[in-house]
Specification:
This protein is mostly helical. The protein is built from 16 helices and ten strands. Among the domains are: 204 residues, Orthogonal Bundle (Helicase, Ruva Protein, domain 3), CATH 1.10.8.350; 66 residues, no CATH class.
């Protein structure tokens, strides 16, 4: 869910973060309810379940956020987190104290994990701001993801996990093609999930963020570190062993710790969430994340609309659609004559600009709420459009491909 593009002329997607509310003081278990609700009697009820017939049952309850942690500061240095005498840096100790108090965690548990965190120079380097401005190229970015390997492997992934994808689509209304495309873009269907120790990466970016002009970014990483430590205490993952991207994203769908806590689901019903080892958990978690971020079942990602000639004036660059179809039509937009449902006309819409600076071109599209749901996964128009285009191509190929039954039918001679 977080990556820094290492190719020229590509957008550097921003890290997905979920705004954290400050709930009234409750038990920690209740605050962590999106993963598993823990009853007062101690019983565990999965946040995602299956009925007697084995069908996926969607959990659409709004996630309950955990309190933010405001203590702690960041500095641009490689200074160790622990003094020669074995004490935490004062800023990190303040963070530990507030985390333990705000989330009712044992201070020994919090401090014990932080004492084992180590500065990761590679994570800091990869997060450092570019020395020169990178020219944005929609074509280059798209070609990185909508390409033969992801298409071919995506079809195979879809066939292998068709039952789970069908159940997730039925439960959450998110098409199988979109779920497959996200996992393909994020990790090439689990082949590249990252090998950074997440504890080290998040501590580095939280307390030694390489850009002093972005203190809010360091704050965000400290909150992700707090979520990681909380998940460890609850036994949802092992913070000492968890591996992921240089920014702390984990598993097939590259969920940050906060997204694991709030949106991940137990797709295979084994009583735990494992986004590395369980494809079912990954598939259902992606579907749940998108639905809880505004995905509208039955609505396309892009409306079948030709934007007006002066479309740029309608681009806000935001992550929320703000225009009605009536406003777009009055501005000169025209709906195509492709038939099908027109349910998108009742949805809020937004004009998307896909800029290619080297080619001096801009492609305009009209996004529905589903496009903007994708931008909550990664805050980039390029990212969301690439996912949509890969999903469309996968859908087309799967519809054109022969079914398993057809492949097994003897050929008459």
């Amino acid at each position: 869910m977080f990556r820094r593009s290492r190719i020229l002329q590509a957008v550097i997607p921003a890290l997905l973060t979920t705004a954290c509310a400050n709930p009234q003081p409750e038990t920690l278990q209740r605050n962590i309810s999106p993963i598993q609700q823990v009853s007062a009697a101690g019983g565990v009820a999965p946040a995602h379940s299956a009925n007697a017939a084995g069908k996926t049952v969607a959990d659409l309850a709004p996630p309950v956020d955990m309190p933010e942690i405001h203590a702690g500061t960041s500095e641009v240095s490689e200074r160790p987190f622990v003094s020669p005498g074995g004490q935490l840096d004062p800023s990190i100790e303040a963070f530990a104290q507030e985390l333990a108090q705000q989330r009712a965690l044992p201070i020994e548990h919090v401090r014990g994990l932080l004492l084992e965190a180590r500065y990761n120079a590679t994570a800091a380097r990869l997060m450092s701001p570019a020395k020169t401005r990178i020219r944005r190229s929609w074509v280059t970015y798209r070609n990185r993801f909508v390409e033969p390997t992801r298409i071919r492997n995506g079809q195979q992934f879809w066939r292998e996990h068709a039952d789970t994808l069908t159940r997730a689509e039925a439960a959450y209304g998110v098409p199988a093609s979109v779920i497959v495309a996200i996992i393909g873009v994020e990790t090439l269907y689990g082949r590249h999930t990252g090998d950074f120790r997440v504890l080290d990466a998040l501590a580095t970016l939280g307390f030694r963020y390489p850009d002093p002009s972005r203190p809010e970014r360091a704050q965000m990483f400290r909150n992700q570190l707090a979520d990681l430590i909380t998940l460890d205490y609850l036994g949802k993952l092992n913070a000492r062993e968890a591996r992921g991207s240089f920014a702390g994203a984990m598993g097939l769908p590259q969920f940050m710790p906060g997204s694991i806590a709030r949106y991940a689901a137990d797709g295979d019903q084994d009583g735990r969430v494992d986004l590395h080892g369980s494809v079912s958990d990954a598939i259902v978690s992606v579907a749940r994340f998108l639905r809880l971020h505004g995905w509208q079942p039955g609505v396309p990602v892009f409306a079948p609309v030709t934007p007006p000639a002066d479309a740029q004036r309608l681009v806000t660059g935001g992550l929320t659609p703000t225009l009605s179809w009536q406003e777009l039509e009055a501005s000169g937009a025209r709906a195509s004559q492709q038939g099908g449902t027109e349910g998108w006309k009742s949805q809020a819409l937004g004009v998307v600009n896909l800029v290619d600076e080297p080619r001096n071109t801009v492609e305009y599209r009209v996004g529905t709420p589903n496009f903007f749901a994708l931008t909550h996964y990664n805050r980039s128009y390029f990212y969301a459009s690439s996912v949509a285009d890969l999903a469309q191509e996968l859908e087309r190929r799967m519809k054109a491909a022969p079914t398993t039954a057809q492949l097994n039918t003897p050929v008459e001679r």
